[in-house]
């Protein structure tokens, strides 16, 4: 340990503090050795995924290290998303440092420490939110699932030891620990500030496949390269940074530099435990934003920042390994014979568990207006609750049109894992990963009780819609190796896979209707009724407030901008017809009369009345009308000579 400590202290900048450094005497040595680290910030994460950032002088931590590490600091929890938990009359929340994960130093390269000439640093310590003695934030939920998953899985193997035979194990006593692994792929858009998106050009570029995997240039290239290098400095082991499908070619300005930048990128780094992966993502987002900003570029982690163009996903990989007492590492999902089977019995159970219970996972995956805009046919974003394992066991294939995919490497059984394709950059990784692992465990338990072989379980999973099985819903189809978008009509998709929720309210309503699936979240007290209720209230509140304060304004701006353009120079009957259709739509959407209120006025009334079902219904109707209005107006402008 002395050598490792010396190696850390010899660095010019201290980037990360691994778990072994989280001892009083080591921390004091390190922090005094790096005087440019002037602040400490405890990073708690509320139920909507917002993380705290406060500037506490590092001297506060150094003056009473033991108390700081054990007790953290008190704060006001009524201003974060802990609805009906931390209330105005009971708002005290403790931020308690997590000593079991890596900590990072966040450097401000625009603020230099005078004595050392180095950037000012803030030690960011992931923390739990504790209210009335209970961990109530997102990190608390995920911490509980990590412990429960390991404990309950070993209990299942003790009860059903025959499950272990395909791994070459005789009993659960041979298992030392269970290692859960998770990784996310972070997509985002970058652009020159104030530039407006030309949807038609972006859509054309996407159809022509002009951007995906293409070479980055100029400031985008520099920022991407620096981001990857910084990830390496922080020990996050970056794996790839590249262009995604969205974007248009930038232009060269008068200064000789690229201008009018609008591109979609992706950055990936190595898997870790679910908690470390979620913490790392929180840190990486801040890091990427600040690096690109130094190059004059604006970063957006919205799921669908531009209509009509590919949104940004956050494909999430989840796996499980067993570590045996004799030092072996065994992938829980990989079958004994990879040429004959896709998955082990526990693997099939895990895969089916996520899909069978997705109604209880989806509210944590897709919980905003922006997120639902991304899940549309034609943009490689999943719209159906269906999975793919491949065409045959010998040749792993990847179906990019489904929700849950099996990822395999025939030469490396440890790489076997699942890819959940629905999450987006705004999804709360802590919560949807926790819910997914709970449902994997539910499926494993069902499979253990069934005593079916891996081949029989493949048959169960591949069942046609309408066939009764021991675990999966009778009326649904769960496996498709076809293109879900092209090989099924919308009617067929809805019939076979279920009609996907179109609004936040629909998603929450489906969740509430599936009471038996919802109850599975409470196993092991991972989620509690209070936490689920708080999350639901916060999600609905955010949905309504965004409609009232942002979306209605955006729609009215579009309506007002659809102005009459044709003059008297040369007007055809087609121009007149176009304008009459446009103006009729404008009036229906926004113009009240004595006899009838416009759709937007009705929407405002529904918000005032808190009529959630009506708000949801009008959101869909008005959204469709706005899309039609934009289409009509584009056709109208194309026919005008003066334009």
TrEMBL record:
Residues 161-562 form the GS catalytic domain. It is an enzyme of class 6 (ligase). Transmembrane segments: none annotated. GO terms for biological process: glutamine biosynthetic process; nitrogen utilization. One of its GO terms (molecular function) is glutamine synthetase activity. GO terms for cellular component: cytoplasm; membrane. Its EC number is 6.3.1.2. InterPro entries: Gln_synth/guanido_kin_cat_dom, Gln_synth_cat_dom. Pfam families: Gln-synt_C (PF00120). Belongs to the glutamine synthetase family. PANTHER family: GLUTAMINE SYNTHETASE (PTHR43407), LENGSIN (PTHR43407:SF1). This is glutamine synthetase. It comes from Tindallia magadiensis. The lineage of its organism: Bacteria, Bacillati, Bacillota, Clostridia, Peptostreptococcales.
């Amino acid at each position: 340990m002395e050598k490792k400590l010396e190696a850390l202290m010899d660095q010019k900048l201290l980037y990360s503090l691994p778990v072994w450094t989280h001892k009083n005497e080591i921390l004091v040595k390190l922090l005094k050795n790096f005087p440019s680290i002037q602040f400490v910030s405890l990073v708690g994460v509320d139920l909507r995924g917002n993380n705290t950032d406060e500037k506490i002088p590092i001297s506060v931590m150094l003056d009473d290290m033991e108390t700081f590490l054990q007790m953290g600091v008190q704060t006001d929890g009524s201003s974060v998303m802990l609805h009906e938990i931390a209330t105005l009359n009971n708002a005290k929340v403790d931020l308690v440092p997590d000593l079991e994960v890596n900590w990072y130093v966040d450097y401000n390269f625009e603020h230099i420490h005078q004595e050392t000439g180095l950037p000012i640093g803030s030690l960011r310590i992931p923390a739990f939110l504790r209210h009335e003695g209970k961990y109530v934030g997102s990190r608390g939920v995920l911490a509980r699932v990590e412990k429960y998953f390991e404990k309950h899985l070993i209990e299942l193997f003790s009860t059903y030891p025959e499950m272990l035979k395909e791994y070459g194990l005789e009993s659960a006593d041979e298992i030392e620990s269970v290692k859960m692994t998770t990784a996310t792929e972070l997509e985002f858009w970058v652009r020159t500030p104030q530039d407006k998106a030309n949807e038609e050009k972006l859509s054309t570029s996407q159809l022509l496949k002009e951007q995906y995997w293409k070479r980055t240039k100029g400031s985008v290239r520099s920022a991407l390269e620096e981001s990857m290098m910084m990830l390496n400095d922080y020990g996050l082991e970056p794996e790839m940074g590249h262009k995604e499908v969205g974007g248009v070619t930038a232009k060269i300005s008068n200064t000789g530099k690229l201008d009018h930048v609008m591109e979609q990128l992706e950055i990936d780094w190595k898997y870790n435990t679910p908690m470390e992966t979620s913490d790392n993502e929180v840190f990486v987002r801040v890091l990427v934003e600040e690096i690109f900003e130094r190059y004059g570029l604006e970063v957006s982690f919205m799921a669908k920042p531009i209509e009509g163009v590919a949104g940004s996903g956050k494909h999430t990989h989840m796996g499980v390994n067993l570590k045996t007492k004799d030092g072996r590492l065994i992938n829980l999902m990989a079958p004994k014979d990879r040429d004959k089977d896709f998955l082990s019995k526990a693997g099939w159970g895990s895969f089916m568990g996520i899909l069978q219970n997705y109604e209880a996972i989806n509210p944590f995956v897709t919980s905003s207006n922006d997120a639902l805009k991304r899940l549309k046919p034609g943009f490689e974003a999943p719209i159906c609750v269906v999975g793919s394992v491949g065409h045959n066991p010998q040749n792993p294939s990847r179906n990019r049109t489904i929700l849950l995919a099996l990822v395999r490497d025939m030469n490396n059984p440890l790489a076997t894992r699942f890819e959940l394709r629905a999450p987006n950059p705004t999804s709360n990784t802590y919560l949807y990963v926790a819910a997914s692992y709970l449902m994997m465990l539910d499926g494993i338990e069902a499979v253990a009780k069934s005593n079916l072989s891996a081949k029989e379980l493949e048959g169960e999973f591949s069942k046609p819609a309408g066939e009764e099985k021991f675990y999966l819903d009778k009326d649904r189809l769960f496996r498709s190796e076809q293109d879900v978008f092209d090989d099924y009509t919308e009617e067929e998709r809805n019939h076979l896979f279920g009609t996907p929720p179109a609004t936040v309210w629909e998603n929450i309503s489906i969740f509430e209707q599936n009471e038996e699936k919802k109850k599975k979240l409470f196993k092991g007290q991972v989620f509690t009724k209070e936490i689920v209720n708080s999350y639901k209230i916060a999600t609905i509140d955010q949905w309504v407030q965004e409609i009232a304060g942002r979306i209605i304004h955006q729609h009215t701006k579009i309506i007002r901008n659809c102005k009459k353009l044709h003059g008297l120079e040369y007007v055809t009957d087609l121009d007149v017809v176009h304008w009459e259709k446009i103006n009729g739509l404008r009036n229906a959407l926004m113009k009240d009369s004595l006899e009838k209120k416009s759709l937007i006025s009705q929407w405002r009334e529904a918000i005032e009345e808190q009529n959630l079902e009506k708000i949801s219904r009008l959101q869909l109707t008005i959204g469709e009308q706005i899309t039609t209005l934009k289409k009509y107006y584009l056709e109208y402008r194309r026919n005008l000579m003066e334009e």
